[in-house]
Design goal:
The protein is an alpha+beta fold. 19% of the residues lie in helices and 20% in strands. Strands 1-2-3 form a three-stranded antiparallel sheet, with no helix packed on it. Strands 4-5 form a two-stranded antiparallel ribbon. The chain starts with a helix and ends with a helix.
Length: 129
């Protein structure tokens, strides 16, 4: 935006021919429910209040994330079913990387640093392991 405002008038005029109007992308509809289907730009939802249809340019499905390891913890989401109230599977006790009962198995990359990025932290975890 700053680059556009600081540009000469003729350049701003040229850009205005292919720029999207400022009112585009201003409306956001948050719908809690399941997507029933899509027809063109219309998305049909099944919500708690009943069926709802929304005209949409973009659909973002924020499905959440569950930390589940069914191959390590039997009975933890084995059939792919999600239980909203269920807790996540625990991470190991040693620096959240190693479980003393399984020293040859490491959880690398599950760190969520307050400062920094995940890849360098995962590299540090691999070096520590």
């Amino acid at each position: 935006r700053k680059a556009k405002r600081g540009a000469p008038w003729w350049q701003r005029r040229l850009w205005s021919y292919w720029d999207v109007p400022d009112e585009a992308g201003q409306d956001v509809d948050l719908v809690e429910g399941s997507v029933r289907g899509m027809e063109g730009r219309t998305v049909h939802y099944d919500t708690a209040a009943g069926p709802r249809s929304v005209e949409a340019d973009v659909v973002v499905l924020a499905t959440g994330y569950r930390q589940r390891f069914p191959f390590l913890f039997p009975g933890s989401d084995e059939k792919g079913q999600t239980d909203v109230g269920a807790a996540d599977d625990p991470l190991p006790t040693e620096h959240f990387i190693i479980n003393p009962q399984e020293p040859r198995l490491a959880y690398i990359g599950f760190v969520r640093p307050n400062v920094g990025a995940i890849p360098p932290m995962a590299e540090m975890q691999a070096m520590w392991w």
